[in-house]
Each structure stands twice: as structure tokens, then as C-alpha cells.
Structure to design on (619 residues):
């Protein structure tokens, strides 16, 4: 009995050795570091991916792994293919049962957007999680590359990352020498909120030659008063809206005829979702912002 | 008396069975049975044993804790509007938790810090209400309400000056929801132990509910009794808040509901609160996670939607 067991163990060990060895030689583990600095290694390319933020959905699609996404969270509205995918609830309250039932081999989470308790529970249940939240243009490229590494779609992913990188480089070169325009970006109307230079939107403004009048503030998304906006007297005011269509968000400023931005008619709307999500669509957003600031420059 | 408790016990078990059977993913009764027997597929085991069971227990424990704490506070303060949070306990817990989050601590330390915050709030109110003069429930209530307002201000201030990348975690904590609960055991164990321990005090509580003068005349040591209730209620609330954040409504409404049905005898009301509070939160949480799945509702919405009409019906009938 004992010898039989030993034989069996030996045979099993041998079997594992011959099975594992060639695999580990030919297909290396797929490893990538997430945006919290945690290293994730997958033994095989991810085939069943669930994304827990609309931005993550865009980035996984950009990484060329769109056909491996099996579920998303609400508001994953881009690319259009994401609209047909099943949902596992909202990013603030994930339906854990629905998620587990889909048996994902990779869940892409949102560093600050998902409840920490739910992400920890996923990890305890043995699900591979990869937390992302790019805060720079290079971060967008890098996360696309890392996601494509995990999904085994390096060809598409690295090409897309490079396209974004060179797009940024081209735009940066194009707008390097334009005249600076003091600008105020209104994130929210009530309460009044803006961004500082650390925020991706702040970086977009800067690239286009905009000088964020609140760029030096401490917080990423500072709450401010209307008074300081009047005092700063920006040459242009920008805000995001659905598809960049004008709405009433900036009407409040029109009663201050003395504001340069109002006087010169420099109140602009840009499409909200491309500029507020760290994805390759930032290129479109930058294009739009740069055009608006160009108009503002002409009118000064 | 035992019959009504038995009935509530059966209801509690039924609600837990329901919570295990229902979810956003459909598990067939045959599969359920397999899992109960220790078999079944990995997925079904995960769904039932790793997701539904801990969550159901956490909901039951939290609901029970809040209802018992509410019942005790209402007797202690002789005020029908008293609930477990009225003396600022949840505020203290929140400040403790947020401080730990600011310091970048892990979940376990955050829970510990929340508990410490709640106990600090308790001691603070205890000390301040004591003061130099004589002690009365209204003085305790007033002190608690003012201290609670203070905690509220501190929380708002902390949120306003927190680096924004730490903000979401904090907001989740403040929202209070069973889906964010981690381990159910502290809640369940504290609930069981404390109900057993306070039962011998229930007779004295009945006397106290009629007023401290009468209680003293009947030989009840009023002051020690009051402080015991205060400490126990605080401990219960602190455990509940540490488990699932501050979930409102259960602690206020469940004891009142039971008094309308069963009469104001603490010997029944206290264990009945534990059972009914747990049942209410289990049912509410089951609905919250299934009604519009995969969308998950905050449990507080359902507790109120279930509790308000039930309470109003009982109140109307009692006239």
C-alpha cells in the first residue's frame, strides 16, 4: 500500500515535471505591476476579464483585449461594444455573486473608486485583481501595455500605447510655443470645483498652453468660491458637458460682465467623458481643448 | 411570552434560510441541498459559504445589536426618539476609522480604531454628562447630542482636507452597508453574549422605565443600573458600527414596533429586539442585493421602505 502510494507520488511528480518544465520554458508567467505597486503574475493570458470602472473598460479594449471582457460596471459606454456586455452592478457596490458566477480570471479594479472591502474580499476568494488609475499621459500608455501583457495581446496593446504616446508628443510639439491663456476649468457647478495641475485635466490644459489659474492648489479637485474666480479673472472658462453640447452650467458667470472670459465670450464646453477618463480618447479631448483655447486666444 | 419569542426565532431562521437561498445568481434548491451536505460545485460553495453566509450572519448580528442598543437607550434616556447613535457613538467611530485610513492602515486596524473611537465617544459623554452637578437622563441626552454634532463637524473637516485619493474609501465607510462588512463573528458573538448577560437586569429595567424615583423606592440601585445600560448599549453599538458602518433606522424602529405588539416588558423586548432587528436587516439586505440585481441598493433604503409602513400600521392599529 505504502509503496504503491510512493510509486504514485513518484509518477505524479514525474508527470508534473515534464508537464511544467516545457511550459515554463516556452510560455513565461505573465507579470505586471499595478498602479498601487502590487505585482500580479498570471500563469496564462487572461481570458475572462471583468472591469470595475468605465475607464478600465476603455483601457482593456484599448489594450486589444476587448473580446476577452465578459462583464463591466454601469456607465461603461465606450467603446460601443461595451454597451452589450453584462453588468456586475455599479463601481461603488459590486454584485459579488454575479461577478463570482462569471468566473473571471482577471478583475481590473479602480484604485480609489471601488470599495476597499469588496476588493479585499475578491482577493480572499482567490480572484486575481489588478488595480489601475493612470494620473499622467505616460500612465495611460503604460497601463495599456501592462494590461495587454496580462491578456496576451501585446501586439495590439503596445501599438496602441505607442500611438497614444506619439499623439501626445505631436500635440505637445504643436502647442509648445502658443501664447499662454489663463484658464479656469469648472469641474462642478454647485459646489464650485476645479482641478489643480496634478490632475489629468490640468495636464491637458497645460499642454494646450492654458495656465490653470488654480493649478497650484493643494488638492487634486479643490472646492473654491466664486469670489476667487472673479479675483483670478481667467481669460477663458471651460467645463465638461454631455458630448460637449452647451448647457446652463456656465450661465452663472454671465452676470459678471466684467469677467474677461465673459466679455470676450470665452465660455466653452468640451465633451465630458473623454476628458475625465484616462484613456486614449484623451487625444480627442486635448484636440478639442486646444481648439477652444485657440479660439479664446484669437478673441483676446 | 415564550410563544412570541419562539415565533420570532422561527422568523429569524426563516429569514436566514431565505437569505441563503436568494441571490442575484439563481442557485437551484437541489444545488443548495448539495452544498449543505458538504458537496456541490466550487462556484455554488463560494456563493453560499463565502458570500451569502458571512453576509447574512453579519446582517443578523448588526441588526440585532442595533435593535437591542436602541431598546436600551430608549429605557435609559426615557425618550422615544433615542436610537443607538443619539449620543454620538457613530461619530466617534467614524472619526477613529477615518484617522486610521488617513494613516494608511489596513482593514483590521481601521476596525479597531473605529471601535476605539466609539468607546472614546462613550467615555467622553460619560465624563462630560457627569460634570459637577447632578446627573439626569436629559443632561446625558443633551451632552450626547452636542458631542455628536461635534463629531459631525470633525468628520466634515477631515473629509474637506483629506487628499482626494483617500476620500472614496472614507465615503464608503461613512455610508454604512452590509456589503462592506468583513467578518460577521464579532457582531454575532457580542450579540449573543450581551443578551444573555443583560437578561437578569430586565426586571430592574422594567421598574426603571417607570421612572427613577419609583425604581429607587422599589430598591433598585438606579445609578449603577443606568451606567451599566449605558456601557452595554455603547458596546453593542460600537460593535455594530465597526462591522457595517452606521446603518440607521433599525435601532429606532424595531424596539418601538415590538412594544406595540408585545407590550413594554423588557424581559421580552430585549431578546425580541435581538431577533427582530436581525431578521429585519437580513430581509432588507436580501432585498437590497436582489431586487434590481446586478444593481445593489444601500440596505438603509430597504430597512426604511419595509419598516416605515409596518410601523405606521402598528401605530394606527394600537389606537
Amino acid at each position: 500500500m505504502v509503496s504503491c502510494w510512493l510509486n504514485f507520488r513518484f509518477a505524479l511528480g514525474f508527470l508534473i515535471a515534464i508537464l511544467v518544465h516545457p511550459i515554463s520554458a516556452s510560455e513565461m508567467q505573465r507579470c505586471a505591476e499595478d498602479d498601487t505597486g502590487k505585482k500580479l503574475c498570471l500563469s496564462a493570458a487572461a481570458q475572462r476579464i471583468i472591469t470595475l470602472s468605465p475607464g478600465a473598460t476603455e483601457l482593456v479594449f484599448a489594450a486589444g483585449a476587448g473580446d476577452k471582457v465578459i462583464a463591466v460596471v454601469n456607465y461603461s459606454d465606450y467603446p460601443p461594444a461595451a454597451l452589450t456586455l453584462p453588468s456586475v452592478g455599479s463601481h461603488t457596490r459590486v454584485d459579488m455573486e454575479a461577478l463570482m458566477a462569471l468566473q473571471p480570471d482577471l478583475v481590473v479594479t479602480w484604485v480609489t473608486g471601488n470599495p476597499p472591502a469588496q476588493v479585499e474580499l475578491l482577493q480572499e476568494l482567490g480572484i486575481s485583481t489588478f488595480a489601475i488609475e493612470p494620473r499622467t499621459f505616460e500612465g495611460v500608455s503604460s497601463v495599456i501595455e501592462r494590461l495587454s501583457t496580462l491578456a496576451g495581446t501585446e501586439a495590439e496593446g503596445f501599438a496602441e500605447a505607442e500611438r497614444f504616446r506619439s499623439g501626445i508628443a505631436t500635440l505637445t510639439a504643436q502647442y509648445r510655443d502658443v501664447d499662454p491663456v489663463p484658464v479656469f476649468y469648472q469641474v462642478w457647478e454647485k459646489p464650485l470645483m476645479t482641478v489643480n495641475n496634478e490632475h489629468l485635466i490640468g495636464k491637458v490644459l497645460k499642454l494646450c498652453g492654458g495656465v490653470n489659474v488654480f493649478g497650484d492648489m493643494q488638492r487634486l479637485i479643490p472646492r473654491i468660491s466664486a469670489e476667487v474666480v472673479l479675483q483670478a479673472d481667467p481669460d477663458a472658462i471651460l467645463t465638461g458637458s454631455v458630448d460637449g453640447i452647451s448647457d446652463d452650467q456656465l450661465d452663472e458667470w454671465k452676470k459678471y460682465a466684467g469677467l474677461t472670459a465673459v466679455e470676450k465670450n470665452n465660455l466653452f464646453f468640451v465633451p465630458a467623458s473623454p476628458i475625465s477618463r484616462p484613456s486614449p480618447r484623451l487625444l480627442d479631448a486635448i484636440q478639442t481643448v486646444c481648439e477652444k483655447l485657440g479660439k479664446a486666444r484669437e478673441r483676446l | 411570552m415564550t410563544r412570541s419569542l419562539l415565533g420570532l426565532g422561527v422568523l429569524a431562521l426563516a429569514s436566514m434560510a431565505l437569505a441563503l437561498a436568494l441571490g442575484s445568481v439563481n442557485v437551484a434548491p437541489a444545488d443548495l441541498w448539495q452544498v449543505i451536505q458538504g458537496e456541490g460545485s466550487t462556484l455554488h460553495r463560494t456563493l453560499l459559504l463565502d458570500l451569502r453566509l458571512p453576509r447574512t450572519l453579519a446582517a443578523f448580528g448588526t441588526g440585532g445589536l442595533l435593535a437591542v442598543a436602541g431598546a436600551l437607550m430608549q429605557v435609559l434616556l426615557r425618550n422615544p426618539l433615542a436610537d443607538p447613535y443619539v449620543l454620538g457613538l457613530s461619530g466617534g467611530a467614524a472619526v477613529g476609522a477615518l484617522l486610521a485610513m488617513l494613516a494608511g492602515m489596513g482593514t483590521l486596524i481601521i476596525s479597531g480604531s473605529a471601535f476605539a473611537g466609539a468607546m472614546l465617544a462613550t467615555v467622553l459623554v460619560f465624563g462630560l454628562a457627569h460634570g459637577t452637578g447632578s446627573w439626569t437622563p436629559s443632561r446625558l441626552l443633551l451632552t450626547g447630542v452636542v458631542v455628536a454634532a461635534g463629531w459631525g463637524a470633525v468628520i466634515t473637516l477631515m473629509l474637506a482636507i483629506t487628499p482626494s485619493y483617500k476620500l472614496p474609501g472614507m465615503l464608503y465607510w461613512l455610508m454604512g452597508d452590509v456589503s462592506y462588512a468583513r467578518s460577521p463573528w464579532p457582531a454575532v458573538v457580542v450579540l449573543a453574549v450581551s443578551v444573555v448577560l443583560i437578561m437578569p437586569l430586565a426586571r430592574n429595567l422594567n421598574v426603571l422605565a417607570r421612572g427613577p424615583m419609583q425604581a429607587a423606592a422599589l430598591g433598585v440601585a438606579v445609578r449603577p443600573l443606568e451606567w451599566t445600560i449605558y456601557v452595554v448599549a455603547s458596546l453593542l453599538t460600537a460593535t455594530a458600527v465597526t462591522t457595517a458602518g452606521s446603518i440607521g433606522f433599525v435601532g429606532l424602529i424595531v424596539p418601538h414596533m415590538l412594544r406595540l405588539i408585545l407590550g413594554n416588558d423588557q424581559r421580552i423586548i430585549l431578546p425580541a429586539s435581538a431577533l427582530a432587528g436581525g431578521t429585519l436587516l437580513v430581509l432588507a439586505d436580501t432585498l437590497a442585493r436582489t431586487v434590481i440585481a446586478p444593481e445593489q441598493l444601500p440596505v438603509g433604503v430597504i430597512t426604511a421602505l419595509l419598516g416605515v409602513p409596518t410601523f405606521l400600521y402598528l401605530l394606527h392599529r394600537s389606537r
